[in-house]
Design goal:
This protein is an alpha/beta fold. The model has no long low-confidence stretch (mean pLDDT 96). It is built from six helices and 17 strands. It is globular. Helix 5 crosses helix 6. The strands form three sheets. Strands 2-1-17-16-14-3-12-13-15 form a nine-stranded mixed beta sheet. Strands 5-6-7-10-9-8 form a six-stranded antiparallel barrel. The chain has two domains: 243 residues, QueA-like (3-Layer(aba) Sandwich); 79 residues, Beta Barrel (Thrombin, subunit H), CATH 2.40.10.
């Protein structure tokens, strides 16, 4: 299977620059994955497609304001740091621009002294390993200094940073939002529970690798980035009980899906676990856990459109995407949603 097979033509004006208001007013493309049949609704109609005994699995990761700007201690030169991965304590792997100003041993100051850092090392792919220091909480300093790392295709300024967080986010650590969950309001989740739909949480800290293009034509040669995940005993029990009782496990987003399928593959069953995953899901993959998927519309030739094609069928997904373009759906992080059942 070729990367170019997953290309579709998307007019730039369909890339959503701002989130829908209210959250659940975005459009919803409903797909029957057995037949490929499509219908056009709104996200607040999603309850019509959920049944008593189903469970929704949500990724509760919270996006860090991970873009910070420092000044070189000796020259005052301005450098951007984008936090990618916590390596323990206040040591982080970062993307720096311009990288040539961030050699090992170089010191930087942020916010006039609120925080400092020293570049410790350079990775094989050019990222910097950085040790940060501040008085008090590192995350409090980051909240004060940092900016939300919006995807590169969003050019509008985000007025309310909470709109790039899900309403249930709680575990800090992502460099990008698990965007399928952005459509849910607290009220909509409460209505789902009142209908008898159970809610469970996993944590997968989304890395910027989620936006990394596939640069090889042979899909199987692509190397996935690694992300940290956790599944609690409570969530594992909920999933197992749902399956035993004949309910459906519906993943909210590709990040929840990757977590669930990783646990099943690594552990041989669903149980409490944590670790790192570089699972790559593309057509031919055998899904062991999920029965349904709520997701946004993904970039052409991306690993995420490959994942949804694996779940719903390549022809079904390419038809759905071309239909969504014709119907002028809004695409990507702040765009509209699909539910595939």
């Amino acid at each position: 299977m070729k990367t170019s097979d997953f290309y579709y033509d998307l007019p730039e004006e369909l890339i959503a620059q701002t989130p829908a208001e209210p959250r659940d007013s975005s459009r919803l493309l409903v797909m029957d994955r057995k037949t490929g049949e499509l219908s056009h609704e709104h996200f607040y109609d999603i309850l019509d497609h959920l049944r008593e005994g189903d469970c929704l699995i949500l990724n509760d990761s919270r996006v860090l304001p991970a873009r910070i700007f420092g000044e070189k201690k000796d020259s005052g030169a301005r450098v951007e740091f984008l936090l990618l991965k916590n390596l323990g304590g206040n040591r982080w792997e970062t993307l720096t621009k311009p990288g040539r100003k961030a050699k090992p041993g170089t010191e930087f100051v942020f916010g006039g002294g609120v925080m400092t850092c020293t570049v410790a090392d350079v990775t094989e792919d050019g990222n910097r390993i950085v040790d940060f220091a501040c008085e008090g909480s590192f995350y409090a300093a980051l909240d004060q200094l940092g900016q939300m790392p919006l995807p590169p295709y969003i050019h509008e300024k985000l007025e309310d940073q909470e709109r790039y967080q899900t309403v249930y986010s709680r575990e800090r650590g992502s460099a990008a939002a698990p965007t399928a969950g952005l459509h849910f309001t607290k009220e909509l989740l409460a209505k789902a529970q009142a209908k008898g739909v159970k809610i469970g949480f996993v944590t997968l800290h989304v890395g910027l690798g989620t936006f990394r293009p596939v640069k090889v034509e042979d899909v199987t040669k692509h190397k996935m980035h690694s992300e940290h995940y956790e599944m609690s005993e409570e969530t594992a029990r909920l999933i197992n009980e749902t399956k035993q009782n004949g309910g459906r496990v519906i993943s909210v987003g590709t990040t929840s899906c990757r977590t669930l399928e990783t646990v099943a593959k690594k552990e041989g069953c669903i149980r409490a676990s944590e670790g790192w995953t570089d699972i790559f899901i593309y057509p031919g993959f055998n899904f062991e856990v999920i029965d349904g998927l709520i997701t946004n519309f993904h970039l052409p030739e991306s690993t995420l459109i490959m994942l949804v094609s694996a779940f719903a069928g390549f022809d079904n997904i390419m038809n759905a995407y071309n239909t969504a373009v014709r119907e002028k759906y809004r695409f990507f992080s702040f765009g509209d949603a699909m539910i595939i059942l």
